[in-house]
Amino acid sequence: MSQGEVGDRVRTTADTVKAARAVVLAAQELAADARDGLALALDGSEPEIHAGVVGVLTTAVSAIGDAADYAGALSAALIAFADRMGTGRGAGTGSVVAPAASAPARPDPAKAPPTLGRWKGKTAKEHVLNGGEDIGRKPRGSKSMPIRLVDSVEELDEIFATLRVGAEREDIPHYKGRMYRFPDGTRIAYRTSSRSGGDNDPTMDLAVPGKQKTTLKVHVSHEEQDGTS
């Protein structure tokens, strides 16, 4: 078999891998739709249940995406090798030369970074850094720190359950709520009381570490105390 004929066969294989990648991408889109639909269906459930179930599907979406990336890299490597071989039409009969570089290694799940929850396309850290502009609305008046208001406890619970995916529970004795920490040090927490709202004022606290810690507070709007902390 000539080099060109080998190139033709490898090129056909690359086309098959490319077609398989398209199917995998379609599966990823379906999984993402299922995740988003389930998140809405579980609206109002316990945050731990919501985060656990939605988190599994979020991980699945990420894993399917990794498979698609691998298929794309493999297809590109095969095409590059086929191009070096040439084509069987009018090709010579020289010996086949092995590719200079092997196909990319399949990602190791154990070494992959944790899947992070996203609300409207942004992680907890990204929401903090942009002042929470994609969460709820700003309170009336001037505030000493970024504060966002949502319309219901159910909405706040859904945002919290989604954003905390990928964080580990952290025991903070002085914090009267549940605190979670991401690998980069970003924290997200949920409490049911505040200084101004008393024991029935669910609030989400977020903080990004740095020379000057950046924070964000999200809680349910109260007509009589819009924007209090």
Averaged pLDDT, please? 79
Approximate shape = elongated
Task: Determine Rg (CA atoms, Å).
Answer: 25 Å
Given as residue ranges, the uncertain stretches (5+ residues, pLDDT < 50) are 90-94, 98-103, 224-229
Secondary-structure content class: alpha+beta
Strand content: 5-15%
How many structural units, i.e. domains?
Answer: 2
Q: What is the count of β-strands?
A: 6
Give the helix proportion (percent range).
40-55%
CA distance, first residue to last residue: 76 Å
Strand/helix succession: HHHEHEEEEE
Report strand order across the widest sheet: 1-6-5-4-3-2
Characterize the structure shown.
Residues 98-118 are annotated as: Disordered. The protein has 229 residues and is an alpha+beta fold. It has two domains: 3-85; 124-225, no CATH class. It has helices at 3-41, 47-85, 124-129, 153-163, and strands at 147-150, 168-170, 178-181, 187-191, 203-208, 214-220. Strands 1-6-5-4-3-2 form a six-stranded mixed beta sheet. Strand 3 (178-181) and strand 4 (187-191) form a beta hairpin. Helix 1 (3-41) packs antiparallel against helix 2 and helix 2 crosses helix 4. 25% of the residues are buried.
